[in-house]
Amino acid sequence: MKRSVVREFRYTLRRFERLIAGRLRESRCCSGVTLPQCHALLEIEDQGRVSLIELVQSLGLDKSTLSRTADGMVNIGLVSRTFSDRDRRSIQLALSPQGQEICDRINADNDQFFSRVLGRIPAARRQQVLESFQELVNALAMETHWTGDEGCRPASRKKGKEEK
Question: Is-above-0.85 flag for pTM?
């Protein structure tokens, strides 16, 4: 691989990181919850009901960190915690009505923002950009040996829900 291509990619990636970091600092981005809580809430929303271990695997965090995050979300009423009927050692997490409300706000704010971002890309190229970005994320995941959600999913990841 040509060094100039790698350097150009790294430069663009640094710009992307700074722009995303700036977006994440905005209070509307995560509707007043911390970034780890935001990611956990959205993952729980995607999966419906999830065990702590499944959440650890999908988010790539260590169990103790995620356990503290989950405890915090339970304590402020965003998530309910129950024990599995099959295995009392398995903790199941689900969104509370308040947690769903936060997810709805996070989704609405970010959908508006990224709709504007994607609107700046010519319509004929949007699908290509999405596919290229997915390919980049998958390549990065393979190189770092972590895929997050253990593979590719279509644009609408929610099981049994139609895209609006």
Answer: no
In the chain, the amino acid numbered 43 is E
DSSP E strand stretches across 24-88: 49-51, 79-83
Q: Are 118 and 98 in contact (CB under 8 A)?
A: no
Q: Which of 33, 29, 7 is nearest to 112 (CA)?
A: 29
| CA atoms 33, 36, 39, 43: torsion sign | negative
Residue 12 has pLDDT above 80, yes or no: yes
Q: Number of helices and strands (H, E) in the chain?
A: 6, 3
The Cα–Cα gap between 71 and 32 comes to: 17
Distance CA 81, CA 161 (A): 23
Cα–Cα distance, 134 to 136 (Å, whole number): 5
